[in-house]
Amino acid sequence: MSTATKLISVAEAQRLVLERVKRLDAERVPVERAAGRVLAEPASSLVDLPPFPSSAMDGFAVRAEDAGMGARLPVVARIAAGSPAERPLAAAESMAISTGGAVPEGADAVIPLELVEDRGESIEIREAVTAGANVRNRGSDVQTGDVVLDPGIRLGPAQVGALAAAGVHEVQCAKRPRVGILVTGSELKQPGDELGPGEIYESNGLLLATALQLAGAVPAQLGVVGDDPDELERAMERALLGFDMLVTSGGASVGPHDLVRETQAGLRVEEIFWGVAVKPGKPVAFGVRRDHLVFNLPGNPVSVLVTFELFVRPAVNALLGLPEPEPAFRRGVLEVPLRRNAERDQFIRARTRRDGDDVVLEPIAGQESHMIARAGRADVLIEVEAGDGELTAGSSVRFLPI
Q1: Which residue of 141, 170, 210, 365 has the lowest C-beta tally within 10 Å?
Q2: Measuring CA to CA, which residue among 322, 315, 328 is closest to residue 150?
């Protein structure tokens, strides 16, 4: 593909990817190992929460009708969390109670410590309370059988805490996609090895493995394959059999050593598209073989970074069952002008800073697609839509965190 007119848009490429993704099957996961997983089925509470009326603060359990201002009440028991009172509260009595303690039968309010004068064996009430004050009713958070979390939620600290509090010890989560990573290029060496003439260190495999793991997948680096058709075919055949997704980098353009697409065609991979109107990352390809997804990313590291965020991460999100798998853009303002590209959407590496309520976006120096070391200083990608002219400083634009 040599002309820009044949390139498809980023949005069209994303649509073509997502319409071919099927959510993976579910598996049962212990809640203590569910962090970062995506819920596949509703999770319901096994208990009322709280399971009993409990105190919202340290104070004294009373009957509101006995607790008028100036009233003096004997303290007949002291209740700690996990140690309920041994008998109901009678009229004209009080019981000291800790936060989370079970409000005794007969009591209908808790008066805070600061509203009484504690004389040890009795209290004098300085300010009256009404019935229900500072009492957490049974089931006021959730009741037995209520849905705590819906499918499609990624489980973070709050969600795992909610499940545990509701007595849920196992949940049904989408399986994590298994993704093979195959890097091509005879010039590539591993960090730590000595470089020979014309050789460079390989970084795309680790970049992709890190991005995939953080996205919720299970990556496997399959090594570097040289520019040899037979070796490439054997490596790709093994990868297509063993993983839900295969991601390659390099070898998918139009040079004499770009063998990936031709090799895939021989392995019955149906190519859905090749070439997207995006900079960097134009020679990106996507295909399928049965339910296996295949992404061919360019060889330049920054192109890998950009095309992963635009196309691979949404596919991982969809495999996990997230209801909105598309890239999660946010909005910020440009610190400096940016020139548009007439034919392709651009994604500019930038740093962010806060200015009041605004997120200010400062492009980094060095935007060439091979400049991964400079890209390491960036924390976002600014979207600059194709068009004429430039975006002025202060313009509102979309960006993707990276």
Answers
A1: 365
A2: 322
Q: How far apart are CA 324 and CA 353, in angstroms?
A: 27
- For residue 325, tell me if it sits in a domain: no
CB count within 10 Å of CB 267 equals 14
Say whether both 278 and 344 belong to one domain: no
Question: 179-237 pLDDT, tens per residue?
Answer: 999 998 888 888 888 888 988 888 999 999 999 999 999 999 998 988 788 888 999 99
Q: What is the CA radius of gyration of the chain?
A: 30
Q: Give the pTM.
A: 0.88
Convert 373-391 to b/e letters by CB count within 10 Å (16 or more is b). Answer: eebeebebbbbbebeeeeb
Residues 286 and 372 in one domain: no
Q: Which amino acid is at 155?
A: L
Q: Give the residue numbers spanning the domain of 215.
A: 4-24+176-320
Write out pLDDT tens, residues 378-401: 999 999 999 999 999 999 999 999
Sole residue written with tokens 């793991």 = 213
Kind and range of the H or E run holding 307:
helix 301-307
Rounded Cα distance, 238 and 62, in Å: 72
- Total domain count for the chain? 4
Question: Mapping DSSP to helix (H, G, I), strand (E, B) and coil, where does residue 93 land?
Answer: coil
